[in-house]
Amino acid sequence: MNATVTRTPLIAGNWKMNFDHLQAIAFVQKLAWGLKDAKHDFSDAEVAVFPPFTDLRSVQTLLAADRLSLSLGAQDVSQHQSGAFTGDISAAMLTKLDVQYVIVGHSERRHGHGESNDVVAAKAAAISQTGMVPVICVGETAADLEEHGAAAVPVAQLRAALATLPAGSPFVVAYEPVWAIGSGQAATPEQAQSVAQALRETIIEVSGEDAAATTRVLYGGSVTSENIAAFMRQSDVDGALVGGASLKVDEFQRIIRFRQHVGA
Ligand code: PEP
Questions:
Q1: Would you say residue 34 lies in a domain?
Q2: Is the shortest distance between the CB of 134 and ligand 1 below 6 Å?
Q3: What is the pLDDT of residues 29-85, one digit of tens each?
Q4: Which of 177, 210, 235, 244 has the greatest number of C-beta atoms within 10 Å?
Q5: Which atom of ligand 1 is nearest to the CA of 242?
């Protein structure tokens, strides 16, 4: 693997179904001002927020008007391009809002909305085809962990998602053990590293060495300012997908500024 490549860490806040558009504007303003006051260097950590669909236009307008260095993401997308899909949002609609990243395969969609590996793969392809970057979430349930170990299910999910991705298109992987999401019980840094390494090896196999060297693999699941530094010390962990803690502006900033307490 190309040892000279460095991956800019990505700290991504998945707001889930929280904050209306007014709350979203207030939150992003506070976050941006706080990071500016702290002289945050965005080459230390890229910061992305993933608001609900109804907030995207407001956040996009704020980011553009104030030239803020935050990246904008969406939490889901349709696998279809257009047509009779009531309630769905297409990838083309998201690109018009300057959305850069889209989450696919989050366990709340796999389990709560019955999204299969095939649906996740079709969504990832739709995102890539319009020039956005899919954040492909993979992770094992507690039962999977007991039955197959930690890496088997995430690796199979990643393989399925990469199968239809156009060659050479960038993607992010988020390893999120389902049992760690919202539970307050994060994986250990060693567990996260071991699965992240298996995922990177899968990327080498499927997409090649260069893709594996540049692709960011995030950890997600009960990340806080207390545990982020230990995750970021792992060689194959390149950032975090943060749920609950991304809704608290001070806490999210402490996570983003992990370099202040990473001890590296
Ligand atoms: C998530 O839902 O992606 C997540 C990681 O949530 P939390 O940080 O709350 O565990």
A1: yes
A2: no
A3: 999 999 999 999 999 999 999 999 999 999 999 999 999 999 999 999 999 999 999
A4: 177
A5: 8
Residue 241 Cβ < 6 Å to ligand 1 = yes
Does the annotation mark 261 as catalytic?
A: no
Q: Could you report the per-residue pLDDT of 99-152, keeping only the tens digit for each? A: 999 999 999 999 999 999 999 999 999 999 999 999 999 999 999 999 999 999
User: What's 154's domain CATH number?
Assistant: 3.20.20.70
- Indicate the pTM of the whole model: 0.96
* Identified catalytic residue from 40, 46, 106, 140: 106
Mutate to test the pocket of ligand 1, among 15, 102, 108, 176 (most ligand atoms within 8 A of CB): 176
The single residue of 46, 108, 140, 176 carrying the catalytic annotation is 176
Closest to 151 measured CA to CA, from 183, 179, 192: 192
Q: Is 176 a catalytic residue?
A: yes
In the numeric block, the tokens 């996570």 are attached to 255
In a domain, 1, yes or no: no
**Pocket lining: 181 vs ligand 1, CB cutoff 6 Å:** yes
H helix intervals, the chain: 21-37, 56-65, 91-95, 107-110, 117-129, 142-148, 152-162, 189-207, 209-214, 228-232, 249-256
Please indicate, yes or no, if residue 53 is contained in any of the structural domains: yes
Number of domains in the chain: 1
Domain limits for position 38: 10-260
Percent pLDDT > 70 in the chain is: 97
The CA angle 26-31-33, to the nearest 5 degrees, is 95
More confident site: 45 or 2: 45
Residue 161 lies in a domain: yes
Q: How far is Cα 134 from Cα 154, in angstroms, rounded to an integer?
A: 16
